[in-house]
Amino acid sequence: MSGEKKVSSPDYPLLGRKVLEASGNDAGCKLSHGLYIVATPIGHMGDITLRALTVLAQADVIACEDTRTSGVLLHAFGIRKPTLSCHDHNEDARVVDMTRRIRDGEAVALISDAGMPAIADPGFKIVRACRDAGLPVTVIPGANAALTALAGSGLPTDRFLFAGFLPPKSAARRTELAALKTAEATLMFYESPARLAPGLADMAEILGAARQAVVARELTKFYEETRRGTLGELAAFYAENSVKGEVVILVERGGGESVPADIDALLRARLGAMSVRDAVAEVAAMTGIAKKQIYARALALESA
Ligand code: SAM
């Protein structure tokens, strides 16, 4: 478990407003036309960047995933700009409107409810449309939940695979997990608190109960918590302890495990009755283990 000591903290919105005042807010400053992808905090208001504040203050219009949610942030920092909504259900129509505005010379900023737009949030379609049309795209980097969790997890950071949200239904979730089982990278998932326990149970069963994992909850917020253990331990813990808030799950890579003994039994049962290739394909589909690994085992059994 971890969490920053909560001592009295500066009034970040006040500091932000002072920064904008000191820089003349938007008076006389005009951004060049284009799309500005602006990261916003995932909890802690102090994680807005100076550049995010100034770009938002100078944009002609701010496209928000939810205008009410972003309205709170913009109001806190004293940013008064026209907003429009851009969410999963209207992004196609908004692409037309936003690219037209940019062609007409406007600076259009895009923010999501939290973190980096386009990462498990709307943004990809408008970015692609702008790139396809040769319109300028600028990213103002900042907070992102997956990378924040990874950096503080103690799991290997040299290679990672962001898998976003797994399917809500267990059967589809297990199929997706089987496809990720042998990825030689730290796996990163977003999850809702309600699906944390069933998700971890499926991960323990499909990825392996002994794998190290981390649940990072409420990052940068008051109840921030990072819990580390094996998938089996975490599944058991969260089956007994329901949680609130936002959650990232990280799972240590699994590519290095030795082949379990029952793989040999599964292969032996097939090798006499079908080709090596078919036997390997069947066992790989059943276990989720990479074909390459099973093929090596099949050859070892054949030559024994
Ligand atoms: N665009 C965002 C980003 O850059 O991280 C992600 C948006 S996605 C719709 C929301 C999910 O991100 C949550 O369900 C949770 O899995 C994760 N998340 C967002 N904020 C978080 C936080 N403060 N702590 C832990 N997870 C968080």
Protein architecture, described:
This protein has helices spanning 12-22, 50-58, 67-76, 91-103, 124-133, 145-151, 170-180, 196-207, 231-240, 261-271, 276-287, 291-303, and strands at 34-38, 61-64, 83-85, 107-111, 137-140, 160-165, 186-191, 212-217, 225-230, 247-251. With 304 residues, it is α/β, with parallel strands linked by helices. It has three domains: 12-143, Cobalt-precorrin-4 Transmethylase, domain 1; 146-251, Tetrapyrrole methylase, C-terminal domain (Methyltransferase, Cobalt-precorrin-4 Transmethylase, Domain 2), CATH 3.30.950; 263-303, no CATH class. The strands form two sheets. The chain has a five-stranded parallel beta sheet, with helices on both faces. A five-stranded mixed beta sheet has the order 6-7-10-8-9, with helices on both faces. Helix 7 (170-180) packs across helix 8 (196-207) and helix 11 packs across helix 12 (291-303). It is elongated and about 80 Å long. The relative contact order is 0.11. The model has no long low-confidence stretch (mean pLDDT 91). It binds S-adenosylmethionine (SAM). S-adenosylmethionine binds next to helix 6, strand 7, strand 8 and strand 10. S-adenosylmethionine binds at residues 42-43, 112, 114-116, 119-121, 144-146, 190-192, 216-221, 246-248.
Task: Summarize the SSE layout with pairings.
Elements: H1 12-22, E1 34-38, H2 50-58, E2 61-64, H3 67-76, E3 83-85, H4 91-103, E4 107-111, H5 124-133, E5 137-140, H6 145-151, E6 160-165, H7 170-180, E7 186-191, H8 196-207, E8 212-217, E9 225-230, H9 231-240, E10 247-251, H10 261-271, H11 276-287, H12 291-303
Parallel strand pairs: 1-4, 1-5, 2-3, 2-4, 6-7
Antiparallel strand pairs: 7-10, 8-9, 8-10
